[in-house]
């Protein structure tokens, strides 16, 4: 069978599970696929969602070569029925970003050492997951047999809660489990206070959400006693 790329006039010949482009063989069964020679296709991996992850280390530095290879690659992946395309561009090749944007790639997220762009091939809304945009906070409620609760005072906090004793809280570290993060935040601070003193602080009496929490802790305190 012969497949012809409209954009580049490149012909792909499929025979015995292999693809031939201008008589150059490509093993399409392996995770990484590349075409070298007259017309290049970017090296990539296939994910389990019929998507494509372009190998960032193999991207050409030359913008002209990258532009031609990207167009050919998109045509090839469309013929293969691929869906989402993930393109990570490292800082040493940031000149390639405008080329990808011109080919309708969109920004997904950035990190200090790279930019991630995506391209959705099928018609209709993009089904790729959005980039992470939130941080996860945790807090710990620790009470002993004497009805004392573990509390802390923040050194730096908004003026409205300055000097207030509070439960130990913090943000989850990158790739940290929520349970482990809660334990870590509790261990980082110390101080014990009777529960009734903690609940009598005016700051918490005026906060309706905290009031519900404190009502629950009061019930817990009675159960312990």
TrEMBL record:
Q: Which molecular-function annotations from GO does this UniProt entry contain? A: ADP-ribose diphosphatase activity; NAD binding; NADH pyrophosphatase activity
Nudix hydrolase domain: residues covered: 133-225
Q: Which UniProt keywords apply?
A: Hydrolase
Q: Which InterPro entries does the UniProt record give? A: NUDIX_hydrolase-like_dom_sf, Nudix_hydrolase6-like, NUDIX_hydrolase_CS, NUDIX_hydrolase_dom, Pre-Nudix
The reply on keyword Hydrolase is yes
Of which family is this protein a member? Belongs to the Nudix hydrolase family.
User: What is the name of this protein?
Assistant: Nudix hydrolase 8
Q: Which organism is it from?
A: Acorus calamus (Sweet flag)
